[in-house]
Amino acid sequence: MADDEQTYREFTEAVNMKPAELAAWLESEESKRVGWHKGGQSGGGESVGHESGRRIVDLLRRKRDQLNAADYQHMRKVTGYVHRHMAQRPSGDVRDTKWRWSLMNWGHDPLIERS
Predict the structure, then answer these.
(1) Within a 13 Å sphere around the CA of 40, how many CA atoms are in the beta-carbon half?
(2) What confidence score (pLDDT) does residue 38 get?
(3) Tens digits of per-residue pLDDT, 51-100?
(4) Which pLDDT value is given to residue 114?
(5) Taken in order 76, 82, 83, 85, is the CA torsion positive or negative?
(6) What is the residue-wise DSSP string for 29-56?
(7) CA–CA distances in Å: residue 52 to residues 92, 93, 107, 114, 115
(8) DSSP one-letter string for 63-88
(9) Cβ neighbours around 104 below 10 Å, total
(10) With DSSP H G I counted as helix, E B as strand and the rest as coil, what are the percentages for the chain, rounded to 5?
(11) Which long-range contacts (CB under 8 A, 24 or more apart) does 91-100 make?
């Protein structure tokens, strides 16, 4: 139970986009153009990050007592991705970069600062 508490806290710290913001972002062309596809970069279909983003929207809209072990596992995956990707921040303005867009697919916009 304590592990779930920590996972939830770290997830909500890593994911700084609200469900409606993330859902709107996932509809954009930029969102659909970035990320790794299960069939390879040019394999077509939905990217892994885009699929994760849809799941994140669902997780954020649910009550905590509705979350199961698979949900907490995905939360840990999201948190790990955000932390690894943030450590690779490119120099300069990141506003219109694939780096930022990829992070946003995972629910984190590096240009948003919320407490």
Answers:
(1) 2
(2) 74
(3) 999 999 999 999 999 999 999 999 999 999 999 999 999 999 999 999 99
(4) 63
(5) positive
(6) HHHHHSS-BTT-TTS-S-BHHHHHHHHH
(7) 27, 26, 9, 22, 23
(8) -GGG--HHHHHHHHHHHHHHHHHHTT
(9) 25
(10) 60, 0, 40
(11) 98/33, 98/34
> For 16-27, what is each residue's pLDDT tens digit?
999 999 999 999
Q: Is 53 exposed, middle or buried (0-12, 13-18, 19+ CB in 10 A)?
A: buried
CB atoms under 10 Å from CB of 4, counted, come to 14
Task: Give the CB-side neighbour count of residue 26, counting CA atoms within 13 A.
Answer: 24
Among all chains, which residue has been given the structure tokens 């972002």?
Answer: 25
* Unique residue bearing structure tokens 């609200």: 18
Chain centroid, CA 50 distance in Å: 8
Q: Is the pLDDT of residue 109 over 80?
A: yes
Is the pLDDT reported for residue 45 higher than 60? yes
- Buried residues in 56-95 as b, exposed as e (16+ CB within 10 A): bbebbeeeeeebeeebbebbeebbebbeebeeeeeeeeee
Whether 1 has a pLDDT exceeding 70, the answer reads no
